[in-house]
């Protein structure tokens, strides 16, 4: 059989692949250590209302404060965390950090705005996300209406009993759910309706093309009308210019986010934005 498989059957023994395996094991051990030693930090990026221009919420984006490499972005470790399953522990820590931050802002008497955390579809498909959220909210005495959850569209939420129950449990808690990077996956209208989510975040590639052609512009308009028709809010990601912002307002987009409105920054920089904001009243 080995002979029939040809050269390919020896590939697992090449030094290069062994090296890669060692590298991956090392990196995942390092990330595990980082989670245990609480080396993860959250940066926050503001979102604004498309009708009033007011600050509405913050997205929490994880970074790894590496003792020797400095600040490491999520693209360097989230995919590996997904593959190894570490994403569940990482996700729980992110939820805990976000709730701790909300509690700290409240203690400082700041007007509270919701914080949106990114979750892995694994946390829904395997269950446990709602329990982790409920525990963190209780631990820090935070109202569930102050927490939002984003799930990337390309990471499909299974049509399983666990996933369905998990989403129902999140909704019972009062946590709003968003599909992240909408347009990069394959969600159908019926799936979106079945999941009964609060909103969708249109992937930044659509915002980038918005002003390139009439077709791109009409495509965005169609996404907004479709979402509104099924009762979902629309958030545009990756707004980088005043012109894009103006078009999105005209398209009746509900919220906007992007470098033009504010880059992700450490929590310490948020109170300056919050003091100018309209306070959020739960319920
Ligand atoms: P995402 O959730 O779609 O977050 C938006 C990403 O786009 C962020 O990158 C943000 O910094 C970047 N961004 C925001 N505005 C602009 C803009 O105007 N132009 C451009 N070019 N980029 C913009 P970041 O922070 O590197 O995060 C990358 C991805 O990593 C996130 O994409 C999310 O999928 C994932 N991620 C981040 N934090 C977490 C987390 O706590 N848990 C999980 N599971 N995934 C996370
Ligand atoms: Mg997101
Ligand atoms: Mg996104
Ligand atoms: Mg993304």
TrEMBL record:
It comes from the Bacteria. Residues 24-278 form the EAL domain. This is EAL domain-containing protein. It comes from Noviherbaspirillum pedocola. The chain holds residues 615 to 897 of 897 of the full protein.
């Amino acid at each position: 059989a080995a002979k029939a498989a040809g050269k390919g059957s020896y590939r697992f023994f090449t030094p290069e692949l062994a090296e890669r395996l060692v590298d991956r094991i090392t990196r995942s051990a390092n990330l595990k250590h980082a989670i245990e030693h609480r080396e993860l930090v959250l940066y926050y990026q503001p979102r604004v209302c498309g009708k009033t221009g007011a600050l509405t919420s913050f997205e929490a984006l994880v970074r790894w404060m590496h003792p020797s490499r400095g600040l490491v972005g999520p693209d360097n470790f989230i995919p590996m965390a997904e593959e190894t399953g570490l994403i569940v522990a990482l996700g729980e820590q992110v939820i805990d950090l976000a709730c701790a931050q909300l509690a700290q802002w409240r203690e400082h008497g700041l007007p509270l705005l919701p914080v949106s955390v990114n979750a892995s579809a694994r946390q829904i498909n395997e269950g446990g996300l709602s329990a982790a959220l409920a525990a963190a909210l209780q631990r820090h005495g935070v109202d569930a209406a102050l927490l939002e959850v984003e799930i990337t569209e390309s990471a499909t939420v299974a049509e399983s009993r666990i996933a369905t129950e998990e989403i129902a449990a999140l909704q019972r808690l009062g946590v709003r759910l968003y599909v992240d990077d909408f347009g990069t996956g394959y969600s159908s209208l019926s799936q979106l309706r079945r999941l009964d989510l609060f909103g969708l975040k249109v992937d930044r590639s659509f915002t980038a093309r918005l002003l390139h052609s009439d077709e791109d512009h009409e495509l965005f308009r169609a996404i907004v009308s479709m979402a509104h028709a099924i009762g979902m809010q629309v958030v545009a990601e990756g707004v980088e210019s005043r012109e894009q912002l103006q078009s999105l307002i005209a398209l009746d987009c509900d919220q906007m986010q992007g470098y033009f409105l504010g880059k992700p920054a450490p929590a310490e920089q948020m109170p300056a934005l919050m003091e100018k904001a309209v306070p959020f009243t739960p319920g």
